[in-house]
């Protein structure tokens, strides 16, 4: 039976004198040049592994951008045991780090596209570079992330005698909230808004605490506020679109369809990943989001011209 090895990585990119550059790494053990990447740790998600491995291999802290094509190829060890390696990639912008290298990597170099294409050791690594260049040509490489979060699992209504807005997370919900911390961190989310209901605020609070960020509570994102004035929820979403800062919005099952529909209307039909984004958002509108689930929309521009160019869906049970 062929085993599957799960891994994740990034294409760190930047501009120098208006020219697009990408970072490639050299592994002395294999004497090859490739993208920073590595295997998922047990219980880890692909985006978290991508950000972690990039930091470990390059010494650079990155913020994940739009997803890039997955590489799937066969491996064979010295004993002839075969495996399939599945590597998922993201475009990534450097936001920090000291550039200190670990022993597995002895060199990180920034190259323009043509030099990177020549330097890469494996043909399957060119697919991600081509997608990056295509997105850049479409004006859809410089993006900012907007996350919609459905609150984590709470105590059932039938088991709670107090005010519904005060209904807390249960044990599983608290675990889900803690597990959101590294996922949201991989996208560098800064502005945090939430329904003031305990189960929603406590879903995003661990991330706010870990980053020192301010959690802004908006009554219009609660079930009660939405019932009183449905337009308030989309108002808060559009305010985030106007700001254009990496953001997370946490709300409830009955509120989220209006927000998803708004984002669905912002998908550019000509985007390279537009059809996939439209399909994914349509499936969310049809089936809803699971408790603790996160929808990451990669947005270009702000305000009225803002458009969604790519969408990711992260279910709380999607872990290695």
Q: Could you give a quick summary of the protein structure above?
A:
InterPro entries: His_Pase_superF_clade-1, His_PPase_superfam, Nudix_hydrolase, NUDIX_hydrolase-like_dom_sf, NUDIX_hydrolase_CS, NUDIX_hydrolase_dom, Nudix_hydrolase_domain. The chain has helices at residues 46-58, 113-119, 126-137, 171-186, 198-211, 223-228, 231-243, 256-264, 274-287, and strands spanning 3-16, 19-27, 32-34, 37-39, 60-76, 82-97, 107-112, 144-150, 191-194, 215-217, 247-251, 294-300, 307-314.
Structure description:
This protein has helices at residues 46-58, 113-119, 126-137, 171-186, 198-211, 223-228, 231-243, 256-264, 274-287, and strands at residues 3-16, 19-27, 32-34, 37-39, 60-76, 82-97, 107-112, 144-150, 191-194, 215-217, 247-251, 294-300, 307-314. With 320 residues, it is of the alpha/beta class. The chain has two domains: 3-137, Nucleoside Triphosphate Pyrophosphohydrolase (Alpha-Beta Complex), CATH 3.90.79; 144-314, Phosphoglycerate mutase-like (Rossmann fold, 3-Layer(aba) Sandwich). Strands 1, 2, 3, 4, 5, 6 and 7 form a seven-stranded mixed sheet that branches. A six-stranded mixed sheet has the order 10-9-11-8-12-13, sandwiched between helices. The longest helix is centred in the middle third of the chain and has 16 residues, at 171-186. It is globular, with a radius of gyration of 20 Å.
């Amino acid at each position: 039976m062929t085993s599957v090895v799960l891994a994740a990585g990034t294409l760190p990119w930047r501009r120098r004198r208006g020219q697009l550059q990408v970072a490639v790494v050299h592994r002395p053990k294999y004497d090859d040049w490739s993208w920073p990447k590595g295997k998922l740790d047990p219980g880890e998600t692909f985006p978290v592994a991508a950000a972690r491995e990039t930091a470990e291999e390059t010494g650079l802290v990155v913020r994940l951008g739009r997803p890039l094509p997955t590489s799937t190829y066969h491996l064979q060890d010295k004993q002839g045991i075969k495996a399939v390696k599945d590597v998922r990639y993201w475009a990534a912008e450097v936001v920090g780090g000291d550039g200190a290298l670990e022993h597995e990597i002895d060199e990180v170099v920034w190259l323009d596209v043509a030099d990177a294409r020549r330097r890469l050791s494996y043909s399957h690594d060119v697919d991600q570079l081509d997608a990056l260049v295509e997105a850049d040509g479409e004006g859809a490489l410089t993006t900012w992330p907007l996350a919609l979060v459905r609150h984590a699992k709470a105590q059932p209504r039938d088991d709670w005698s107090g005010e519904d807005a005060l209904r807390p997370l249960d044990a599983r919900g608290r675990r889900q909230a803690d597990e959101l911390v590294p996922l949201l961190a991989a996208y560098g989310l800064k502005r945090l808004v939430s329904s003031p209901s305990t189960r929603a605020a406590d879903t995003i609070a661990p991330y706010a605490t870990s980053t020192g960020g301010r959690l802004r509570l908006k009554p219009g994102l609660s079930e009660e506020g939405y019932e009183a004035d449905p337009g308030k929820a989309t108002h808060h979403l559009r305010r985030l679109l106007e700001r254009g800062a990496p953001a997370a919005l946490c709300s409830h099952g009955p509120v989220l369809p209006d927000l998803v529909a708004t984002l669905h209307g912002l998908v550019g039909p000509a985007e390279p990943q537009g059809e996939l984004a439209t399909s994914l958002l349509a499936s969310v509108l049809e089936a809803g989001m699971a408790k603790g689930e996160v929808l990451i929309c990669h947005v270009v521009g702000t305000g009225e011209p803002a458009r969604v160019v790519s969408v990711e869906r992260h279910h709380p049970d999607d872990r290695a």
